[in-house]
Amino acid sequence: MSAIAAADSAQTPATLPVPDAERPQLYDVRLVLLKRKVAKTLESVSKRVKTGDNTEPDPESKLDVTVQTGLYAAKMFAANVAVKHLVNLVVVDEMVWVWHYDRQGTIQCSGINFIQDLPRFMVLLYVFQRFSLVHWGRSTDFKYDEKNDSHKLMIDGVDLECHTSHKDRVAHYGLKGRATNVFPVTSAKLSKDNPEIAKDGMVAKVFWAEEQRTSEPDILKKVYEIAEEQDAVKGHIPHLLWHHKFKDLTSKIREALGISEPAKGSRVLYILVFRKLKPITELKGTEFFDTWRQCIMCHYALWQAGVYH
């Protein structure tokens, strides 16, 4: 099937007839207001999640089908840190579209009329029937441990148990972007190598960084060098215990589909393990003010040294 990549999304009108040509014609109709609509809806749902308001939306309120499927994708992304991409179907009358979601954006294939073009639709169903969890977007690196309700990783001799269901997990609700997740993590290897740090606990930061930007580990390497010379920075730098860059790039599918500028905005998954810190909100009065001031002075010193992060 032919495909297009939308900055936010695109939709093929269901009322357009399927051409008689062997390859369906591609209709590209941009929904200018869709971005605002999705953002507003996601913001509303996100607020309900944060405030604990589980009130269901008014069933009478009709959402655009592209917004509905976007919400489904956002929920699936938020529910499982091990999901790399998602595949959904949008069905309107006798037309069906395949939508692919990842952290770079959305890809929509041209519509199929499953009545007039039944053979092509059957081929699509046969393909889906043979999908494994990997094809549906599940990462093979994160092994789910049902007994402990966690995910386990073993990379280059480093063992990690990611407590992705922990109450302190900070998750992300949305479709595009870094999608940062932070959660407690344990590791026999890292604990052995860093006993003094590991006793305070460790956390993992998982996020989709833009491939073409300077990586966070490289930025921290520069910061560590500055800390050797700047008293305002020394002692204020997070302890990066271990990091890994995964190989999967969101641009790969765009290259395979022949989408223009596939690498523009391409993202790659990182995992960083840090020493666990206490929130500054636990401090009170003068102690809070002094700590906050130190944060400001540290940031200012780094900015002067050329680290704009």
UniProtKB/TrEMBL annotation:
InterPro entries: Pkinase_fungal. Residues 66-262 form the Fungal-type protein kinase domain. This is Fungal-type protein kinase domain-containing protein. It comes from Suillus plorans.
